[in-house]
Each structure stands twice: as structure tokens, then as C-alpha cells.
Amino acid sequence: MATIKDIAREAQVSISTVSFAINGTGPVAPETKKRIMEVIERLNYHPSSAARGLVTRMTNNICLYVPHPKSNIFTFHGNNLINDMLQGIGESIDEKDYNLLLAWEQPGSETDAKIMSLVNKKAIDGILFFNPTHNFKPIYELIKQKFPFVFMGRFFDNEPIDIVDIDNFDAGYRNTVHLIKLGHKNIGFISPGPLNYLVAGDRFEGYQEALRDHNIRYNEHYFYLGDNREASGYSALETFLKLKEPPTAVVAGRDIQAVGMLQYAQENGILVPEDIAIVSFENSQLAELHDITSIRTDLYRIGREAAKLLLQAIGRRKERQTQNIIIPSDIVIRRSCGSVLNPE
Amino acid sequence: MATIKDIAREAQVSISTVSFAINGTGPVAPETKKRIMEVIERLNYHPSSAARGLVTRMTNNICLYVPHPKSNIFTFHGNNLINDMLQGIGESIDEKDYNLLLAWEQPGSETDAKIMSLVNKKAIDGILFFNPTHNFKPIYELIKQKFPFVFMGRFFDNEPIDIVDIDNFDAGYRNTVHLIKLGHKNIGFISPGPLNYLVAGDRFEGYQEALRDHNIRYNEHYFYLGDNREASGYSALETFLKLKEPPTAVVAGRDIQAVGMLQYAQENGILVPEDIAIVSFENSQLAELHDITSIRTDLYRIGREAAKLLLQAIGRRKERQTQNIIIPSDIVIRRSCGSVLNPE
DNA sequence: CTGAAAGCGCTAACAC
DNA sequence: GTGTTAGCGCTTTCAG
Q1: Residue A318 pLDDT greater than 80, yes or no
Q2: Residue A264's pLDDT band (boundaries 50, 70, 90)?
Q3: Domain B4-56 carries which CATH code?
Q4: Which of A41, A321, B224, B239 has its CA 20 to 30 A from that of B172?
Q5: What fold is seen in the domain B168-297+331-337?
Q6: Nearest-CA distance from B219 to chain A in Å?
Q7: What's residue B61's pLDDT?
Q8: Domain ranges, ordered by start, for chain B
Q9: What's the rounded Cα separation, in Å, for the pair A199 and A207?
Q10: Which residues form the HTH lacI-type domain (chains A, B) (predicted)?
Q11: A36-51: b (≥16 Cβ within 10 Å) or e
């Protein structure tokens, strides 16, 4: 393997000149540079990232820190959306020639062992957090160390940190308003998961706010705590329809729940959207497959913006204003909500 | 940040002793070691991976090299399965304290620019290839350089390389035999994609071989070239049923195609499995949702074995026998095939 | 514009 | 068992 020394010798210059030529960090005469570049090409030379990293203290690696793959949360946004996010991240990091390291904690190990190890041993320059839960210890340590990171998804503490997120509150609000505009007053809500997950909590609050804004009283019997299984949508609808005054529309917390509702409806001769209108979140393949109106999350843009922001933060290590970027999402109207109207 | 020098000074030993103590690469007196470890703990010292990498020529990073996220191929095996694979990889690399770098080529860039750059600049110690297409240039360069890598999925050349794969031929064979055993003789086959993708080609060959083994003549009208969209299953069934002698069973190339078939069947009053039996591949969420018999691919084991193999290869850089590990897959019987019999 | 030289933090001979 | 020392391949003052 050729080293910078070989290049210097072959090009008849010193190694510092070679370094200047490669990095543009010092003046080099055009012909000298040309000669150097030729030798580099000829010897197929590539600077060693370890050697470079040792002196620059940069690795050109960022870490995408995700929940454990086995976790349901990992597929929270529907699967193909993760691909979208990766694509967005990829585009941003490619521009600056950064690499992407993927990491998560093994269940049973310390909750932040992996990520702090990566930070401590200086294997990464920054972190992209993609973790819908907010209970997050390492954050504070990282803030203290001034280690660059960006949060994808809301983080409810008021620490000044970089965040890129969709507005789940807004999504819940718009889904609900959409139903209200269609004339519904009795509107059920299935939470996508425990309300202490911000995604779920925010959507629920958006739902409530929409009701308030339209002078509809929130009925606690119209709330059903769901999870990531079809069955939770199924039993939600079952439960709702047993009420004396059942809802005429439901905001499903996620597409798979909407599918469960569809299942129950079909088995029991209930018509969608005639008897019960449904809107959902995620706009996954399932929504498309079953003609379910659903909120589309632009994870591509989230990924791209978050990575861009992180690279900026890495670039200027000085104090800088933290940013809070909200990526808008839109509602994809399909059959299940009983309208082809556009919302608002 | 504490360095090895600080530790040496505080522990009143030389830096080599510290190094020996940390890595176990030299004899250190128990009390000395204890003292050193205490200082390390106290100063929260972590060896710099760049410095270490510079001398050991190891990065402790491996690269999972995948198709572009936008590519359909990326979701070929169904999405949650990718998670399974990641989990498997994660378990293996955690044991040896390795990190996972995720990389793919941006469309439009050179087909192997990213991966060869990673190799050249010595940012990784080995590569896990996950790429269903076989048209793969960098392989030969890597072989020449003796750079460690493992292929997940078949590679049809006869180069001696490490491979971990499921037996798609076997899967196609077993799906077909399952239908034959149920009494079917006219069996359609929808390819999951172009036949030059080995996944598709192998499944198709398994299908053909099963027919041959049971003295059933292959009928080319029973072949339909599908893709990754529901519509291809839909039109496949439509096409098949228009034949003078339509098939009574179909091997769908992937779950989404089976769903498309179900859709067509439902719209046209065709009963599944009574009128047409269906088996498929992937065993994705869709298969579960729609009660489709499907072949389960154990991507968890593929990931785990592949990463393990790669780490072995990285460990002993000497000549070693390449391995060819086949991970068995099994068939998950559901309603769509018209049996609860176990195959074979 | 170019070169000499001092490290970056660590490992691994080699000497004692 | 422990210390000394020579690098690993590169960046970056600082002179000239």
C-alpha cells in the first residue's frame, strides 16, 4: 500500500506539499499539484483514515442510533419509511464524504453502553438519534461534553438541542378536523401505543385540540389504548360499537389498527366509510393496499435535514444556536374516510 | 481527554505496561494491573480507536453493503426481515466489539465507488454483501486484495468465496411439491422479479425441478413474470384464468403478489383455496394478515452466521478454506394452500 | 511556494 | 515484569 511518503518521493516533493495538494490546506504551484495528482493516480493512493483521524480528531463517521431491531418501535413508522429515512441521510452524508454507522443497544446491556462507548473511543463524530421514546439518559452526558447530535423526533425536555421532527400534534389535529369537516361529531381515537411515547401523546393531544376547537366535548369512552397489532384495531372498533352512542368515525393510531378495524367491520357487516369512517397515520403499504386515508410522514426529508444539521454541528464546534426543524406531513385521502375533499 | 500517558503517569508505570494491562498482550503483575485499572476507571479513559487503528491496521468496523434504499430489491424479503438480519449481525459483532457501517451506492455514481473507497482508505475491516443481484464488479478486486468479505445470498461464479444463503431452489421446490402433494397438477408460477436475479431464478428452477420429479410437464403458459407490486399478482391470476386449461394452484413469487391474487379472486368470485390454491415466499406481515401459506426465511440466522464468518475471516488473514453455509427455511402453512398437512 | 520536523495516541519489539 | 523506544501515516506549524 502506498503512503504519502511514496507519493512525495515519486513526485519529488516533501510530504507536506503532498498533504497540501490533497487537502487544499496550503498553497501549491499548479504544476507541482498536477505532478502529485498524477503520482497519486498512478500508485492508487488513498489517505489512511486512521492516520488522518489521529491528527484531525475526526473520523468522518456518524452514527445512526436506533432502537433494537426486535423492538416494535423500530417499525413504528412503517417499514418502507425507514428506507426513505436512510436515503435522506445518505444524500446528506455523501456530500461531505461521511460514513454511516448503525448502532443500537442489545437488550439486557446497559441502556447507553454502546453509544457512549462509540463516543468515548472516538469512533464517531456525531449522532443521529432515532428513538420514539423520550426517556434518554446519554443525552445529558453528550450535552455536557458538547458532543454533536441531532434528535429525530420530539424530545420533551427543554434542553437546547437540535431536533428534526414531524408535527404529530398537527397530524392528529388534521386527521380529526378532516373527520369533523365531513360532519362527524362522535369521533373515536385509538392510540398507536402508550401515551408516554411522544408520538402517541402528541397525536392524541392534536385530536383533543381539534375537538375543542370545534366545540365537541371529549368523550373518554371514545379513547382506546392500542398497540402495534391488528387485533388492537379490531377490538377497538368492537368496543366502540358496543357503546350506547358509538362513534361514527375513528382516528386510528396506525395503519395496522385501521386494517384490524376493517377486518371487524367486514366480519360484522359494518360498512366503511358509510357506517364508520376511518383515518389513520403512517401511509404505509397497508394503507395503500386497503384504501385507507392516512397521514404521510416524510421521513426522507427528516433524514436529509437531520443529517445535514448534524454535519453542520460537527463542522463548527463553536457555540451555535440549536435548531428545531419541523417537517410538514400531509394527508393522503382514500376511500376509508368517505371523502375526496381535501382537508382544510 | 485522558490518554495512555496520563494513565501511565498516574499509575506510576510505563505506557507499555498500561497497554499490556489493557489488551492482555504482555505479562503484568496482578497488583500493577489492579492499580492501572483503577486509574483508568477514575480518569474515565478509553483508548482512541484512531490511534489504535493506525498501528494495528484494524478499525473494528465492518460494512453491511446493501442496494440503494430506494431500490425495490432492498425490501425484497419483506421489511421486518431486514430487522431480523440486523439483529443477527448485531449479536455476532457485539461479541467481538465490532461496529456496523451501513453503505450503498448512490444511483448515478460509479457502481462500486463507495465500497472501494471504504476499502481503500481503510475505514473497514470486512464487508457483508447483501445484494440479490449477482452482477458484482468489486468482488474480483477484493479477492485479489485478499480483503475479507462474506456474501449473503448466492453468487453464481465459482470463485472460492464465503457465502451464507438460503436455498431458494429448495424453497421453490418445496412450495411446489407441497401443492403437488395436495393433488395439483396444473401449477402456475409467478416470478418475484426478473429471472436473472438469482432469488427469482433459483425459485423458478426449484419449481421446475419439482414438476419434473413428479412427471408433470412444464407448461410455459403457467409462467408469469412478476414484480414487487400487488398488481403483478392480480394480472397473473387474471392471465392464468383466461387459459383454456387454467392452473388450479399457483406458486406466488412473493407475498404481495399473493395478495394481488387474493384481490382478483375476491373481485371475481373465485374461491381461495377451493378454486385456486396459493403458496408464496417471504412469510411477511402480509402473509400473516391474509392467511397465506408462505416460506419463512430465517434472515436472523443468515445475518448471524454471515457476520460470524466474516469476523473469523478477519481474524485469520492467512489462507483459509472458504465456507458455504446454507440456512434452511421452512414453510408456514396457512389457509391459502388448502391444507394443514405438513409438507413432505 | 516548499521542506523539516514535531507530534496525534497507541502497539510491540527489544532490552533489562 | 517493566521500561525504552521506534514507528503506524498523516497534518500542521514554522522556517526559509
Answers
A1: no
A2: very high
A3: 1.10.260.40
A4: B239
A5: Rossmann fold (3.40.50)
A6: 31
A7: 98
A8: 4-56, 61-167+299-326, 168-297+331-337
A9: 12
A10: 2-56
A11: beebbeeeebbbbbbb
